[in-house]
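Subject: Interface between my chains keeps coming out wrong

I've been trying for a while to get a sensible model of this assembly. When I model each chain on its own everything looks fine, but I need the whole thing in one frame so I can look at the contacts. Pasting all components below, labels as-is. Any help appreciated, I'm running out of ideas.
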Amino acid sequence: MFGFFIFILLPLLIAGLCYFIKDLKIQYIISLIVATFHLCLSLFVFVGIYNPQLPTFFSIDSLSKFFIIILSNVYFWVVLVSFSFLKRSVIPKAEHGKKYYFTLLNFYLTANSAAMLSNHFGMYWVAAEATTLSVAPLIYYYRNEESLEAMWKYLFLVSVGIAFAFIGILFLTLSANGTVLEGKQLFYWEFINDAKQLNPIWLKASFIFIFVGLSTKIGIAPMHSGDVDATSNAPSPIAALMSGSLRLTSLIGVMRIFQIISFSSSFEFARLLIIIGAVLSLFVAFVFMFKVNNYKRMLAYSSVEHLGLITLGLGIGGLAFVGALYHAVYNSITKIILFLMAGNIHYHFKSREVDKVRNVLNFLPKTGWLFLLAYLAISGIPPFGIFFSEIKIFGGILFSDKPFLLVVVMFFLLFIFVNMGKIIFTMLYKKSENENRDSQIEQFELTHFIAIALFILLTVISVVSPDILYQNIVNITIDFGIKL
Amino acid sequence: MGLEILQGITSIILILGVSPLFAGLVNKQKALLTGRIGAPVLQPYYDLQKLIKKETINSQSSSFISRISPVVNFVSLIITAAILPVGFWKPLISFNGDIILFAYILGLARFFQILAAMDIGSSFEGMGAAREATFALFAEPIFFFTIGSISFISGYTSLFEIYHSIQLDNIYYLVFILICSISMFVLAVTECSRMPIDDPNTHLELTMIHEVMILDNSGVDLFLYQYSSYLKLFIYTILEIAFFYPFSKESYLFGIIIFFVGIIVLSFILGIVETITSRYRMKNIPQYLLFATAIGILNLLIFTFSK
Amino acid sequence: MENVLSILFCLSLFYVAVTSRVKEYVTILRFQGIILTISSIIPIFYHFSFLGLILPTTLLLVKVYLIPRYINKVILDLDIKRYIETTIQQMVFMPIVILSMIIIFLVSSILAHNTELNVIPFASGFSAILVGIYIIMFRKKLIVHVCGFLILENGIFLFGTAVASELPMMIEIGILLDVFVVVFLMGIALNRIRSTFEGFEVSHLGRLKD
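Reply #2:
Try treating it as a single job with all components included. I did that and got this:
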């Protein structure tokens, strides 16, 4: 009960509390304490020291342990940077909205933890919808036209997607008709154990609907547009939060239905569908990276690309599956750094367009170097983690039954790397014609500290590669029935 | 055998005699609803009597079509009346598949009317002919889907057989009747050029459809056209009432009561609809007709797949 | 009895396809709410229980009273013009709806050979989902998009009653919660749109294109 309280109930209470407290600093301190508790508890659960007892619709198995520690990690760092972010000045209409920031963040934590920890499809669905509703007003932080449009599109498209996922869940119930599972509730493990008896037509239909519906939230093509718009217009901590944890929330839904299908006869069909979706999102990222002229949008497409890689690893299976799980961890950490640095650049240059940003290394040296380093990290330079996970994914593809995909994937990734580099190097190095910016020496802010801390964390995890992490991932693959 | 022929002839005479009365009833309802006293109920008879005495003039540029068209119109409608079942009496013409004959004899009448309108040589009537042809295009599927679905249920294809062989043991039939009668009503309104498709009282170029086609006729020609339009309205009324025939299986008296009550109720409904609705814009009329078609298709689907 | 209600539901879908007034959408939402309430009251006639009354009352309150009233208020506040603009020809919409309905009925009757399901509510729910998607695709006004989304949710509900005979109460309440909160947020968003943009059409939301 203690575990349930800390994970889910406490943030809900604090959300309510923050609604009534007027002082931003007190809200920040309370939220930070909650985030620390959350992180510590998920660390204990992950390591295995503490095994909480959760009420009926929740349970902890290796997949949820894995994802909840990613969530706690991302959330903690985002909350840490929030106060100094909120101190930056915005238009007067937006000042009014700052007092809801922490309420919505805590509510997001509740909803997301509930989604990760649930073991019932209905509970998962309600929690996923709640995460959408909690993030949407946060996207509207800057209170201007683009963010309004982004919020509208995100809310609308994701709600339609989640309605589709609900249809998929109904089909799942229908597939259980006539079998042992008829009339029972939609608990994961009961379905996984009896998966062979489920009606294949309805199971396939259910998978299609859940996958298509949740892919609006994951950000996989062809339903990526709402997500990309929202990520590129949200304030940078929120964009980091979304890229790091929100996509994984919907990914866990797809993984659960994939888990059910992998023990039944429709496995190849589901696998094919996932691979098609993944390659399509890589293609979309490849195409749009050529003509993007907004650096936050570039980072959003980079998120699409990396989620595409994770999904591809999921679909291929074997070594690629392990690599995909590692990739989820590293991607979420690196994205935080990228978005925080982009937020710094946005604040100083007051524009998101690449054309207006020049000579960052001169004006904002610390931000510039960290941004460059983060770009290299996300593109797969060792010793930062993405290198290791991508090697595993590529190895998995090579030894699977579809090795030709490796050529396609590497072709796309090459061009994405080149285009991103072109944009970033233009921003960082190129001098502009009229240099009328007042050259203040850049202060060493909290964002830089967080970025350096995250780099160290990333390097430690990828180089040291703790055994607990590996064991957990192996457990997950056993759950999915994959032989390594 | 002789009794059936007698019944058939009696039903035709009944239809011929009562149809102007029905039109007069509808006009009286409309007048009462708008607060006027209006013409007497028997006014259509007086109108027809007046028209016979007048001189028949045809345009100089018209051909033989203008001379034969009114007669063809009238005769087709009499044949249609002969197919229609009135109450329990078997109609004069009744064989398997006579619903198709029904629809296309009416189509023949409309075809000649359109030809005659174009034959007059004035562009005014040509405009009316074009409009009438367009709306008839959309109205045809309504008839086939509605009557088709009811013939699918009962399994027969003759109008008389259809309406007298339906068993009333499921509630679906009641819902089905309601829905079918709605689309039949829409069809009736279209074919007989009533509101909200066409205003029978207006003579403005912007809004006329049917009236404009007979604008240049007079005397016996006009008498035949007017009588045909009264007949058409009454034929569709009887088709609507025919949906309720299966209820009259109980007793003979019940059947007669249903017949008369049905006529009065339908004239009332038609009067109300004509008074309340305004005419739809020309470009919205196809949608309105597609709505009725969709209802017909829905019926067909539901009764196909509810087995 | 469910079949009769599904027929009426389909008729309301046809009406939505044909109409060209914004307020009619709200009327249709009310009508569909009433149909869904009636269809959820039916099991109560078989075995009465107070727990079974929660769902119909919530449905009645939310779908028939609160949400249409809220949308009417939004229409009044934003002074939305009466006429719906469409992105395709008005005439083409109805045949598309008819065609998709025919295909859905055919497919569901084929599926009914395999599993045991109630064909007519199943097909009606699914066609409501499709009509909701068509409205979102083919109409320009944003408030009409919201109405299309609500029709989609109604379709899912009808579909749910046809598919699972003992649908867990929690899922149904989840749907209602979802609809409730989503409509509120959409209303707030539309309010801001009124003060920021000039129009309420999708064509104005083009800033974020690549």
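Reply #3:
Confirming on my end. The CA atoms of residues 101 and 386 of chain A lie 31 Å apart.
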